[in-house]
Amino acid sequence: MERPCPICDVPLLFMERYPWAVCNECAEDTVTRDLQPISFYNESHWGGFLSIVNGSRGTSHDCYIRGIPCYAEEARFGGIVVSRILDGSKQAILEAEAPDPLKDQCAESTRDAEGEGVESVCEGPTDRSEDP
Ligand SMILES: [Zn+2]
């Protein structure tokens, strides 16, 4: 299955886990907000994430490709994936990294109770009686 690179439209293999991943060439064009070239690496052979700007190591995930906001992360099976950020895709990336079932439940109930003035359902796990 293929889909176009979200930056330059070349055909790319579609990865379900990284639906907005950019192609390798775009991933080499990353810059910071100040237009300094930024590159991303695994910290070691067994993973980890680091970014390098002007020879300085950091942990910044945010970058830009041709002025388009993107997000770099450690790929699940090694290496680095750079994805374009659009329509909440960054949020999707973050949730995929750290699933939070309670938060999902909360989002559901908020949606169901839309306009009913029950925002307080999201304030905390006050009702634990049905938990195992
Ligand atoms: Zn591209």
Shape, per Cα inertia axes: globular
Structure summary, number of beta strands: 8
- Overall pLDDT level: 80
List the bound ligands.
zinc ion
First-to-last CA distance: 42 Å
Helix content: 10-25%
Strand order of the largest sheet: 3-4-5
- Low-confidence segments: 106-111
Rg, Cα atoms, Å: 19 Å
Structure description:
The protein is an alpha+beta fold and 132 residues long. It has one domain. It is 19% helix and 25% strand. The protein contains three helices and eight strands, in the order ββαββββββαα. The chain has helices at residues 24-27, 89-97, 101-112, and strands at residues 2-4, 11-13, 38-41, 50-53, 56-58, 62-65, 68-74, 80-84. The strands form three sheets. It has a three-stranded antiparallel sheet with strand order 3-4-5, with no helix packed on it. A three-stranded antiparallel sheet has the order 6-7-8, with no helix packed on it. A two-stranded antiparallel sheet has the order 1-2. The chain is globular and about 50 Å long. The chain starts with a strand and ends in a 20-residue tail after the last helix. 12% of the residues are buried. The model is unreliable at 106-111 (pLDDT under 50). It binds zinc ion. Zinc ion binds next to helix 1.
